Amino acid sequence: MNKKTCTVLLIGRPNVGKSTLLNKILNYEVAIVSKFAQTTRDQIKGIYNDDEYQLVFLDTPGMHKGQNLLSRRLNQKAIESLKSADLILFLTPANDEFGRGDNYILNLVKETKTPTIIVLTKIDLAKDKSLMNNKIETLKKMGIKDIFGVGFDYDQSYIDLLNEIKKYAIEQEVEFEDDIFTDSSMRFLAKEIIRESALSKLYDELPHSIAVEIDDFKEQENLFEIYATIYVKKESQKGILIGKNASMIKNISIDARQKMQRIFNSRIFLNIGVKVSEDWVNDENKIKKLGY
């Protein structure tokens, strides 16, 4: 089947709203969304379909200063993804100055010669309009012409951006069926949901120490039976994650199970264990084992 199609890459610093943008356009929870930086660790693929168009969105890890092997690996994933896009969306917050990190990423984007749209995110949070206007002027001086603003409570802004993206699509054979929102498996989504639930409750204590592995994933009639392990870097972090009388891990499990029930539209049995994997963020073999 033919439609007008386009592969669209989302790139930017951590916590600029890439996952929010993807989920808003798809109207489906494909990617982790949180107020915390570096929550996306994999390239998430989301598929938008209507009668005429199939747009494939690639959400990349936020590019940041590589402080460990995992950070450097995530940055490399984002850079390599630049080669696979028909269109690049460079995201930068409207409520933040255009800094060295933005400049570095934008220069990488310009080197690809790929058509690019600048997306000013979080316009609903930009109380200081002069800061946003200065950012727009800086971008224009750099030769940027296509600049769009989006904000969580401004639904029309996402519609306008989507219509602009469609202008770059060309007619060809589609890659995915109409009812597919993502090529990520339910097993992968379960891993991400558990990690999101853990981050939302423990980010201040364990900012980048958490990894999740799905040990077993069984699909039965109207029931998913899921066994998972959350890994931390130190023995002291294990106690924080479990909590007094196992209260914290129980709250994480309840939160993750409720999200899975909504997204998978099914009953969920979820069992989460906790293990220590010493300094896994700097261990090549452990990083590979955990899927990064």
From TrEMBL:
Record GO terms (molecular function): GTP binding; GTPase activity; ribosomal small subunit binding; small ribosomal subunit rRNA binding
Residue segments, region G3: 59-62
Region described as G1: 12-19
Alphabetical list of InterPro entries matching this protein: G_ERA_dom, GTP-bd, GTPase_Era-like, KH_dom-like_a/b, KH_dom_type_2, KH_sf_prok-type, P-loop_NTPase, Small_GTP-bd
Principal location: cytoplasm
Start and end residues of each stretch annotated as G5: 150-152
Residue ranges of the region described as G2: 38-42
Domain KH type-2, first and last residues per copy: 202-278
GO cellular component: cytosol; plasma membrane
Topological category with respect to the lipid bilayer: Peripheral membrane protein
GO biological process: ribosomal small subunit assembly
Function statement: An essential GTPase that binds both GDP and GTP, with rapid nucleotide exchange. Plays a role in 16S rRNA processing and 30S ribosomal subunit biogenesis and possibly also in cell cycle regulation and energy metabolism.
Protein name: GTPase Era
Gene name of the record: era_2
